[in-house]
Structures are given as C-alpha cells and as structure tokens.
TrEMBL record:
Family that this chain belongs to: Belongs to the castor/pollux (TC 1.A.1.23) family.
Alphabetized Pfam families for the sequence: Castor_Poll_mid (PF06241)
Transmembrane segments: 21-47, 83-111
Protein source organism: Mesorhizobium qingshengii
Alphabetized UniProt keyword annotations: Ion transport, Membrane, Transmembrane, Transmembrane helix, Transport
Domain of life: Bacteria
Main location: membrane
Domain RCK N-terminal: 128-267
Protein name: RCK N-terminal domain-containing protein
Phylogenetic lineage: Bacteria, Pseudomonadati, Pseudomonadota, Alphaproteobacteria, Hyphomicrobiales
Localisation per UniProt entry: Endomembrane system
Family matches, as InterPro entries: CASTOR/POLLUX/SYM8-like, CASTOR/POLLUX/SYM8_dom, RCK_N
Membrane protein topology class: Multi-pass membrane protein
Presence of keyword Transmembrane: yes
Length: 633
C-alpha cells in the first residue's frame, strides 16, 4: 500500500510538473498513458489467449497492433467478433477516446496560448540584420519612413520595435501614420527595453543597428541611458560592437550616456541639434532646407567611405576630383572627423573620405572634363560685422540654448528681446547664460498670439524674428496652432509696413509645415522631424553624429549661404566647376546653391535648395541667388 501511494504521489507530481511545463510535456504524458494501456491490453490478450470469434489466438505483437489501431481509431472495433474480445477492445477504445480528446484539448489550449502570446508581442524575434527601435515617441513615424527609403535596395529588410505599449496598438498607429512600407516588414513587440529578459526578445545579438528613442515621461533621458546600459552590458551580448543611435534631450546627461555606451553609441542631443539649426537658419534664410536634404534618405546624403585612389593627393586636389559628388572632409583611423581641412593636407591611406552623394554607388573618382571659367572668378572681400536686433516670440526648454548659441555669433552691441507669457519667464531670462558680452537680453511678458501685443513690440525694427512653440506648456497641435496664429499676425504687420521681416519658425509637427507656408515666413524648422532624420541617418552611418557636431559648432566648419555674385561674375552661364574652384581658392568647399524660380517645382519643400548639383551643367544666376559653402567663418 505504501508503494502504491508512493507511485501515485510520484505520478501526480510528474503530471503537475507537466501541467506547468506546457503543452509539449502534456502531450508526452498522454503518449505514455496510451502506451501503458496498449501494452496492458496486448499482454492481457496474449496471456488469456482471447481472440476474435473463429480466429487464431494473438501473440503479444499482434495484440499490440490491434490495441494500437483501436486507440487511434474508435471505428475499428465495429468489426470485432466474440464478446470477450469485444469487451477488451471496448475498454481500449474508451481509453483511446479519452486520450485523443485530451490531446485535442491540449493542442487547442497550446495554439490559443501561442496566439495570445503573439497578440501580446512576447514571442522571440528570429530575424537577422534587422534594425531595432526601442521606446515609443512621436518621432517614431518619421524614423520608420526614413528607414523604409534606406531599405529599398536591401533584401528582406526588417524593423523590430519594442515599447511599453500593446502590440496591436503600435501596429494600428503605424498603419495609420506611416505611408507605404515598400519591401520593409515591421515587427512589434511589447516589453521594457531596460529589462534584459525583455530585451532578448528583439534579438539584438544579430541586429544591424539599434535606435533608442526618448520616450514621453518625466525623466526620458534616464530611460534612454538605462536602455543603452542594458544593451552594452548584457552578459550574453555579442562580441562585435553594436551600432547604437540614442536620443538625449538634456545635454547635461550626455556625458553619462557616453560613459555608459562608449564607442558603440552615437548620441543625438535633440535640444542642441534643433536649437543650433534654429539659430543658423535665423541668420541665413533657407539653411534648414540644406540640413533636411543632408539628413533625408530621399536625396543626397553624407557617406563615410574608403577611397584608396585619393592616397597621396592633397585635399585641395581631391575636392576637384569628383563630378557627381562633393568631398567635404576626412575621418582618421580613430573616427575623428575633420571637415574642410587645409587644402595642402596630404591624404593618408588610413583616412576615410566624407562625401555628399545621391547614393553610395554614385561615389566615383573622375569627371568627363573640368570646365572652369577663370575670368569669372572673383576674389574675396571683407564684410564688417554689425550689431543685430533679434526678437524671440514664444518660449520652451530650447530657448536658453538658442540664446547662448546666438551670443556666440553676433557682433558687439547686439540686442535680443524675448517675448512670451510662460510662467517664471522673467526669472529664467535674468539667469540666462551668454557667451561674452556681445549680446544683451531683455524680456517682455506678453501674449504672442495677440496682434495688439505684437504691434507694441515694433516688430519691423528687428533684423531677425524667431517664433518658438510653447511645447512645454501645450501639446504639439495646440502649440503649433498658436505658432500659426503668431505667424499670420506677423505677416499682416509686414504687409502693412511694406517691409520684409526675416522670420524663422519652429514647428513641432511636420503636418503643420504646409499650413504654415501661407504665412510666408522665410524658414521653418520642424523639430521632431529633424531629430528623426538624425537618428535614422546615425543608425546607418556611425560617424554622422561627429560630422554634425562639427557642422553646427561655431568653432568648426559651418554651412553658409552667400551671394553667388560674391564668388563669380553672373553675367553669363557658368558651370558649378567654376563656382567650386572660386570657393576652393578661398579655403572653402562649394556644396550647392539656392535658386528660386517662379515656374520651378519644389516638391520636397527645400526652398529652392539644391545640394550636390552636377558640376558640368551650365546655369544662369541672379543677384538674389545663393551659393552654399562649407567654411570656417
């Protein structure tokens, strides 16, 4: 009795463990039970020599086969004869019905469980060479759209997304807000990107690149840093380095993020990026179109590639060696970026070329023939810097960065007026840091969406007007709506005064960019889109963050839009070869032009900007046209 109790306990314990282990273990137990029933029936028939009526007694193996058939198919017993044999087979068939019914139930429950797991987005991703996006933010839709364009030439591209959201909800939002996906497949998973177990679901070990978005919440940078920490310090991580592009909002957290991610992470400092582009665009109309073109996969992009043919050439010679692309800098073995280095610098064999091109396949050394009109080239002339008056309407967390960046560029005696109605503005403006003493800052508490309040500011007296969104106190759409109202009032003020007012506006949502076009502002900086473009490009080019750090830094080489007539005579058609040579003689690199013509289409809303034009094409230029150059001042 004790042995029987002990066996029953063990069987019950084993069955309980199987219930916890899942369908596969339960199927195994049902198979064991079926085998025991069949063996018992076969042994009983062989010992008792019970056989069908009029038939020969069955040996063990024949009896085993007969019992097996009746276990699997209950209809088999319909042809049995002899009541003793029928009774034995009836018991076997009933046991078989029980086992098969249980098997169907187990399989059905297992399938339902797996479907539920798939619906919840908790199954492991089996893809390889895929791009991973971690966390969820409004930027994700532009990131996906850009990656779809980048993936057009790839075979079976995949984008895997993980966030603390329902899988179905993520899929529905992507379907509603992202256009055609082309050959790219989107895979969504629900989980916490800072958790090692959840992170393993998206299979980062075989990924191509990882994009870490800054999520909504009170402390998004901490979430990003923890996610990067989980990626690079996973005990089961791969030996090859990751290519991680991470968004950080507050520049104060950048140092910690760099310590955590090391050389594997490129940081996109969102507020610094947007603020610097706003400042540059406010001082040079149309410049945001240049940055959008360089960051957009749907046009010319920045590539970092080995060009062994350049070894031994000076940088000045190499600049004029490409017809279909533009060489703008070099990158050494340690990944250090140098944009527009000295013309006499000899290019070493371990250097990589930084090139603007429409596609990597278009990067080819050589040209069909350089045609330079030397007589049309004009020498440089000095321009005296003058004090400027600037006005900022609206305020958000990027305001202090914009103020500091402006103070680095303006001449002594410049004035910045900040007008907004955000809480605590006067106290914040009083403590704003500025570089040097060239810029003085004053503050006006006023409703920037009121025409009366704007007229009292004497807007036409300012050289530049910047309109910022109230993104800290309002949602994206209401903030953009208030910006649009402000822009419409400014347009009326300019029309009434009969003057052109230089206006640059920050928009949060790219969908409002077209609505804002009726305000006739000089430029629009779409903040969320720029961050998305930067993250997308950084995931493909591990040197891009360093390149843009140099481009947007006052101490490095920057992009300028200057009158084309300052470089060449415009009384006759000229090739871009001539313009490029004129810029090269000044230690600059010509990378494009801005020509606005009444009949020209501007489908990509770049304001007439053309980056990396064909150098051999002859064009006519007007005094208002601009040349886009990379220069140090």
């Amino acid at each position: 009795m004790k042995k029987r109790d002990s066996l029953g306990t063990r069987l019950r314990y084993g069955f309980d463990k199987s219930m916890a282990a899942g369908p596969i273990a339960l199927i195994g137990w049902l198979a064991v039970v079926s085998l025991l029933i069949i063996i018992a029936a076969a042994g009983f028939l062989a010992v008792t020599r019970i056989a069908p009526e009029g038939g020969e007694p069955l040996n063990f193996f024949e009896a085993f086969w007969e019992a097996l058939m009746r276990t699997l198919d209950s209809g088999t017993m319909g042809g049995d004869t002899g009541w003793a044999f029928r009774l034995v087979m009836l018991l076997v068939t009933l046991a078989g019905i029980f086992v098969v019914s249980a098997l169907i139930g187990v399989l059905s429950a297992g399938v339902d469980s797996k479907l539920d797991e798939l619906r919840k987005g908790r199954s492991r991703v089996l893809e390889t060479d895929h791009t991973i996006i971690l966390n969820w933010s409004p930027s994700i839709f532009d990131v996906i759209s850009e990656l779809v364009i980048a993936n057009a030439s790839r075979r079976r591209p995949r984008i895997v997304i993980m966030a603390n959201m329902d899988k179905v909800e993520m899929e529905d939002e992507i379907a509603a807000k992202v256009g055609k996906l082309g050959n790219t497949r989107i895979i969504c998973r629900s989980g916490d990107p800072t958790d090692l177990y959840d992170l393993a679901i998206v299979n980062p070990q075989t990924s191509r690149s990882v994009i870490v978005l800054s999520p909504d919440g009170d402390d998004p940078d901490s979430q990003v840093i923890k996610t990067v920490l989980a990626l690079v310090n996973d005990p089961n991580r791969r030996t090859d380095p990751y290519n991680i592009a991470a968004e950080i909002r507050d520049g104060k957290n950048a140092e910690v993020a760099r310590v955590v991610g090391g050389a594997e992470v490129q940081l996109v400092l969102a507020d610094q990026l947007i603020s610097r582009i706003v400042v540059h665009s406010s001082r040079q109309s149309g410049l945001s179109g240049v940055y959008s073109e360089l960051l957009d996969f749907d046009g010319c992009e920045i590539y970092t590639t080995e060009q062994p043919e350049l070894t031994g050439k000076t940088f000045g010679e190499a600049v004029m060696a490409y017809e279909h692309c533009a060489l703008i800098g070099l990158c050494d073995q340690k990944g250090r970026v140098s944009l527009n280095p000295p013309s006499d610098l000899v290019i070493g064999k371990d250097m990589r070329a930084i090139i603007i091109a429409e596609d990597d396949a278009a990067i080819k050394l050589g040209s069909t023939g350089i045609k330079i009109d030397a007589a049309a080239i004009r020498g440089p002339r000095s321009v005296e810097a003058k004090p400027e008056r600037m006005l900022i309407l609206g305020w958000n967390r990027r305001g202090p960065i914009i103020t500091y960046e402006l103070s680095r560029y303006v001449a002594p005696g410049s004035i910045l007026t900040i007008a907004a109605d955000t809480p605590g503005l006067e106290r914040e403006v009083a403590g704003l840091p500025v570089a040097g003493d060239n810029l003085s800052v004053d503050c006006h508490i006023t409703d920037t969406s009121s025409s009366t309040a704007l007229e009292s500011l004497d807007v036409p007296s300012y050289d530049h007007v910047l309109v910022l969104g109230y993104s800290e106190t309002m949602a994206a759409q209401p903030a953009d709506t208030r910006t649009l109202v402000t822009l419409l009032h400014l347009r009326k003020i300019a029309d009434d005064a009969g003057l052109h007012i230089s206006i640059v506006s920050e928009m949060i949502d790219v969908r409002n960019r077209e609505l804002a076009a009726v305000t006739k502002a000089d430029d629009f900086v779409v903040s969320n889109r720029l961050v998305s473009l930067m993250l997308s490009q950084s995931s493909e080019n591990p040197y891009l963050a360093g390149i843009f750090d140099d481009l947007l830094d006052e101490e490095g080489s920057e992009i300028y839009m200057r009158p084309v007539a300052d470089y060449v005579a415009i009384d006759r058609p000229l090739t871009f070869w001539t313009i490029a040579e004129s810029a090269r003689l000044r230690g600059e690199i010509a990378i494009g032009h801005r020509r606005i013509r009444a009949g020209d289409t501007d489908q990509r809303a770049l304001g007439g900007v053309t980056v990396n034009p064909l150098k051999s094409e002859a064009l006519t230029f007007l005094p208002e046209d601009r040349i886009i150059v990379l220069a140090r001042d």
